[in-house]
Structures are given as structure tokens and as C-alpha cells.
Design brief:
Layout lengths: L1 E6 L25 H12 L3 E6 L7 H8 L6 E5 L5 H14 L4 E5 L1 H5 L1 H4 L5 E4 L4 H13 L9 E4 L5 E3 L35 E4 L2 E2 L12 H14 L6 E2 L2 H13 L4 E4 L8 H13 L3 E6 L6 H8 L3 E9 L3 H6 L6 H13 L4 E7 L7 H13 L4 E6 L7 H9 L25 H16 L2 H10 L3 H16 L1
Parallel strand pairs: 1-2, 1-3, 3-4, 4-5, 8-11, 11-12, 12-13, 13-14, 14-15
Antiparallel strand pairs: 5-6, 6-7, 9-10
Helix pairs in contact: 8-9, 9-10, 10-12, 13-15
Length: 479
């Protein structure tokens, strides 16, 4: 049984979708650690696996088609996000042209929510939610010619062309049971991250899900798929599960031996308690890694900041969204502006670089003045980076239901859009176009300040890393 993972190129003038975080178009390449974990699961069972990332190779649609016609896979696998639906639809057509009898599996949040958009024929299977258990059961069912009705967590077409939605799959409680991602498929590529000052870097995930209730939140693409499935089947978010620090250290040791220099932790929230943090940071220090992570402001206290400061932490990514307490309350952020200021003060004290995420338009309480005030406050703070985005009412979130009910969707319904540049949301008192103008101007005024430019030039260790960072900035501004 031959299994091929496919990351198709863009078939239009848009940048390809970023499939790991899942809500923007690609600014810089990120290894899809979730997809590579599935590849490792297959390899552990001795299936033949190959992995074709046509985006990282800058392949054209013609080159994509030329390669597809040469493959002999029994199963093709896609990791699909909302912004990739059109691309994956086109790629599906190419595969079907040359492989009419191959099975095609779609994983990720796009198929989990928009099942009917990707369920093209009876040789197509949607693996919903957390896919790790289900994909292996699917392949074994295909191999043994046993009924798909026995596989949990999948959707497919019946003989009568009706969508069959099997029972939800059981979640993986012990994440240590998962194999490490099959990074050998991407070893020929040097991944560079503008937030990390040494290359090559890779992504690592040490937990799954987030316990907080922000109404707009689309976390990582894996977490979002888990949440969509859990809310649909149980009416609530799924629980959070962790890898042990010992298991994380084993992976870090392997990565150090492979020559990686930096780690981007892609947990929805990396910092939960100081004991776990200290154990993982000790391992990072042991193997001399530069690293960064996402965290909540209310997770930063004196002890935590000191642990971070005693490591080569290149960034802490704080999702603050706004400095307006009423807006923070509306979006159920679970923190206030005082906690945000305190976290930044502590991180600055221990010289830990801070990246802020500011999300424009999260509440009808938002106005042009509240947005400008948030941006003014953010610029006053001594932070390394600020990412300005416009909120998108993603189907499957509470905010989508609110926006739909109140008629705030610009075209009456959700459509996939890049939150780094465009808005599908508008309020009676502030239009989508006004939010887009504020977003673009805010990015320019922050990133083109001489002090910010000089700070980052000094931090990079190589010309290639610096060039990669400026390229990412250009893409962020102009696509």
C-alpha cells in the first residue's frame, strides 16, 4: 500500500494557504507537524509513504500535474484548511484525471466543517477532528476491503450518494504514544522563521487544545478540527492533553542530533505551570536551542518570566487582541489590560522578546477610535513585534453565530479570507474597508520604524535569515 501526502501549489495569483496555523496565507514556510505525525504513524505500520510539498519547491500547476501523473499511490492524503478548499478541489481534479481509482483522504478543519465541499466521490473520505486513530483504521479497512461503517471519525458517500457521518473518534489521551513527526521527508529544506534568529528551525507541539473560551478563536488547524468535531458531537470544547516533559526532551535530543538550531512550539498555550515549563526549558538549554512559543498574558508571573529569561527564548507570542477591558470582556478573553501590561513588564525585565497579536474588529464595541487607541497603546510598549489582523467569523466559533445573527458578514455568509489583509466583517459604524485601511497603515507604521528595523537587523545571525525575514515582511504587506 503506497500512501502519498500532497501539498499542492496555488492555482491562481494568491499566495498558498498556510496549513499549520490554518487561518492565513503563507508568509514564511512552516513545517506541518500534524501531517508529518500522520506520516510517521503510517511508517510505524510499515506502509510506504512519500511526501510532496509543491509549495516549498515553488512548483507551477504544470509541474504539479507532470509529477502527479508519474505517481503510483493507492491513497493520496491532504491536510485541508478553509483557505485551501479551492486549491485542493483543483488538485483533486488533477489526481482524478490520472488516478481514477485511487483513494483520497482529506484531514483538517476544512473537511471537518465543510464536509460536502470536499466529499467529491465514493473514493473520497473525510477524516474529521483529530485524525491520528482514524486514518490508520481507514487504511486498514481499504487494505482488507472491510466496511467503512466500522471506522469512527470519518464521512463518506454511500452507494446512494448520501453523506454517511460515522460516530466521533475517541481522542488520544496519552500523546506520548504518538511517534515523532516524520521530518525526514522535509530534511532537504532549510526552514527559516523571522521570529527565530537561528536556522534551521522546526515546529514542535507538546499539548493539544486550549481550555479557554475566546469567542472568535481559531487556534492551530489541528485544534480547530478537534474543536469543531467535539462541539458538534458533545456541544463543548474537547479536553486538553499533554506530552510529558521526558517525551518532549527525547524529541529535542533527536532534533539536536539532526542539526536543528531553533524550535517554534505551536501549542495553543505553551505555558500552563512552572514545573512543566522549567523541565522543558532545562531540556532546551541542555541542547542549546533558541526557541519561542504562544502564551497567555495571565500565565506570566515573576518566576515564569525568570525561567524564560534564563533561556534562549527569542519570542513569547501573546494574544492580547485589545487593551479595552469592555472589549476583552465581550470576547471572553478571560484577562484584563492590567494583566497584559504586567506580563509585558515582567518579560521586558528579564529581556524576553515579546510579540503581540492585536485583533481588529472582535466586538461591536469596537470603533475606529478604540482600534486606534489599542494601536497607540501597543506602540508605546517595548515589544519586539506586533501582528495586526482582522477578526474573521470562522464557522464553528461562537463569533460566527453572533455575526451571522446580527448581519455583520459583509456578503451575508462566511467566505475564506486572509485575516492579515482582508475583512469579511463590517459593523454599522465601521466598514470592512475602513478596518483594512487601519490594518495596513498600522503594519507600516510599526514595522518601518527605524528603531524596529535596526533592532531586528542586529539580532539575525546570518544574511540568509535576515533576507528571509524581509521577504516575509514584504509578503505580509503586499501578498
Amino acid at each position: 500500500m503506497q500512501i502519498s501526502f500532497i501539498v499542492p501549489p496555488s492555482f491562481d495569483d494568491n499566495m498558498p494557504a498556510e496549513r499549520s496555523a490554518g487561518c492565513t496565507r503563507m508568509v514564511y514556510p512552516m513545517p506541518n507537524i500534524y501531517e508529518l505525525t500522520i506520516a510517521a504513524i503510517f511508517e510505524k505500520e510499515n506502509y510506504k509513504v512519500d511526501y510532496f510539498d509543491f509549495v516549498i519547491k515553488n512548483a507551477t500547476p504544470t509541474e504539479f500535474e507532470d509529477k502527479i501523473k508519474t505517481l503510483s499511490a493507492d491513497i493520496f492524503c491532504f491536510w485541508s484548511v478553509n483557505l485551501s478548499i479551492e486549491t485542493d478541489t483543483e488538485a483533486f481534479s488533477v489526481i482524478r484525471k490520472y488516478h481514477p481509482n485511487a483513494w483520497i483522504l482529506f484531514m483538517g478543519p476544512a473537511g471537518t466543517y465543510f464536509t460536502d465541499k470536499l466529499l467529491f466521490d465514493k473514493q473520497t473520505i473525510i477524516v474529521r477532528g483529530e485524525p491520528d486513530f482514524s486514518v490508520l483504521q481507514v487504511v486498514k479497512a481499504i487494505e482488507d476491503n472491510t466496511p467503512l461503517s466500522e471506522v469512527k471519525g470519518i464521512s463518506y458517500l454511500s452507494i446512494d450518494n448520501e453523506i454517511k457521518k460515522n460516530q466521533t473518534q475517541t481522542l488520544i489521551k496519552n500523546l506520548d504514544d504518538l511517534p515523532f513527526p516524520a521530518r525526514h521527508h522535509i530534511e532537504s529544506v532549510t526552514y527559516r522563521n523571522p521570529k527565530l534568529k537561528r536556522s534551521p528551525y522546526t515546529s514542535v507541539v507538546t499539548s493539544r487544545n486550549c481550555p479557554f473560551q475566546c469567542i472568535y478563536c481559531v487556534p492551530s488547524s489541528l485544534t480547530f478540527a478537534r474543536e469543531i468535531e467535539s462541539k458538534d458531537s458533545k456541544g463543548s470544547k474537547p479536553p486538553i492533553y499533554f506530552r510529558t516533559p521526558e517525551n518532549v526532551e527525547s524529541e529535542l535530543k533527536l532534533l539536536a542530533e539532526k542539526g536543528y538550531k531553533s524550535i517554534a512550539f505551536v501549542d495553543d498555550n505553551f505555558i500552563f505551570n512552572t514545573n512543566r515549563l522549567r523541565a522543558i526549558v532545562d531540556a532546551l538549554n541542555k541542547y542549546d536551542f533558541h526557541w519561542g512559543c504562544q502564551a497567555r498574558a495571565d500565565a506570566i508571573d515573576e518566576e515564569t518570566a525568570q525561567i524564560l529569561g534564563n533561556s534562549k527564548c527569542d519570542y513569547i507570542d501573546l494574544g492580547v487582541e485589545s487593551f479595552n477591558d469592555e472589549i476583552l470582556k465581550f470576547i471572553r478573553k478571560g484577562l484584563n489590560r492590567e494583566q497584559i501590561y504586567n506580563a509585558i513588564k515582567l518579560l521586558n525585565k528579564y529581556k524576553v522578546p515579546v510579540k503581540l497579536n492585536i485583533l481588529i474588529g472582535t466586538s461591536p464595541l469596537e470603533s475606529k477610535e478604540t482600534i486606534k487607541e489599542t494601536i497607540r497603546e501597543a506602540k508605546k510598549l517595548k515589544v519586539s513585534q506586533i501582528m495586526f489582523n482582522i477578526v474573521s467569523p470562522f464557522p464553528g466559533t461562537k463569533f460566527y453565530s453572533i455575526a451571522k445573527e446580527n448581519g455583520w458578514l459583509k456578503e451575508g455568509e462566511y467566505r475564506p479570507t486572509d485575516v492579515q489583509r482582508h475583512s469579511i466583517l463590517e459593523y454599522p459604524h465601521i466598514s470592512a474597508e475602513e478596518m483594512e485601511r487601519i490594518l495596513f497603515k498600522s503594519n507600516l507604521l510599526f514595522f518601518l520604524r527605524p528603531s524596529i528595523i535596526w533592532r531586528h537587523i542586529k539580532e539575525f545571525r546570518s544574511l540568509k535569515d535576515l533576507t528571509s525575514a524581509f521577504k516575509a515582511l514584504k509578503i505580509k504587506f503586499f501578498g
